[in-house]
Write a structure and sequence with these properties.
Helix 2 packs antiparallel against helix 8 and helix 3 (42-55) crosses helix 8. The chain has 9 helices and 10 strands. The protein has helices spanning 5-12, 15-25, 42-55, 144-155, 175-179, 181-185, 188-195, 202-215, 226-235, and strands at 30-32, 35-37, 61-71, 81-84, 93-98, 102-105, 124-126, 130-131, 137-141, 161-172.
């Protein structure tokens, strides 16, 4: 029986699952085609979280575009600031859509302060809502001009937190993506894993590990070296997807 939207939300917001997910997928910031990349590894998150959601019985789609998390002008004089991609950025973003639940994006790395960004303790977007300790808003658009205008309006909103997403294309998350996840992600993280000869479906195995961690019959691996942890996941026959 497929999980309910409530069940899916609870799984996505599980602190132990999130800590393990981010420990292995986030990277330090780096230069990507001459543009700063904050190391969110959004495509890797898509493969892993999409596989997890599909295992729970959800229909999953992938959205491509851009996003911006905005802290509006502070009443105490702090300047407005955003983290994400401008409309003109050479880099894009990708996240998930679960019909019935809404947009899902666990990749944004926005908790740590990056002055003038104050930091927001948040797992990201779940159910088309920016999950955070204080009030936030979330909006999507398919129009670049509206995306830019909405970001500008958000910067002028005193003491408010607003997330704006630009949807430029959409595709289904199919079994082929789960099966060839490392190649599909084609990221800094996945290229390193492919270079080590690890299986293409490693991210699906990682998703199974995360579900086992949530269920209580697997132990976290983030306390050991990433290379050793990935090797354990790759070699564990219990995590291999069913043929």
């Amino acid at each position: 029986m497929p999980a309910t939207d409530h069940d899916l939300t609870q799984a996505l917001l599980d602190p132990a699952l999130l800590d393990e997910l981010h420990a292995f997928l986030w990277t330090e910031p780096f230069s990507n085609r001459g543009t700063r990349d904050d190391g969110w590894s959004c495509r890797d998150h898509i493969v892993v979280v999409g596989a997890l959601l599909r295992t729970l019985g959800a229909e999953v789609r992938i959205r491509h575009g851009r996003c911006m998390f905005v802290q509006g002008r502070g009443s105490g004089g702090a300047p407005p600031v955003g983290i994400g991609q401008e409309g003109s950025s050479r880099l894009g973003h990708a996240w998930l859509l679960v019909p019935g639940l809404g947009d899902v994006d666990l990749s944004p790395r926005i908790a740590a302060p990056q002055l003038p960004w104050a930091g927001v303790d948040s797992p990201g977007i779940v159910g088309s809502a920016w999950i955070a300790p204080r009030e936030t808003s979330f909006a999507t658009t398919t129009k670049l001009r509206e995306y830019t205008a909405t970001i500008e309006h958000a910067t002028a909103a005193t003491d408010e937190l607003r997330a704006v997403y630009l949807i430029q294309s959409e595709e289904p998350y199919g079994a082929d993506i789960a099966r060839m996840g490392l190649s599909w992600a084609n990221s800094r993280v996945s290229q390193r894993l492919r270079g080590r000869g690890l299986p293409e479906d490693l991210y699906s195995r990682f998703a199974a590990h995360l579900l086992g961690l949530r269920a209580g019959y697997r132990q976290p691996l983030r306390g050991i070296s990433p290379n050793k942890a990935w090797a354990i996941i790759a070699a564990d026959v219990d995590l291999a997807p069913a043929e």
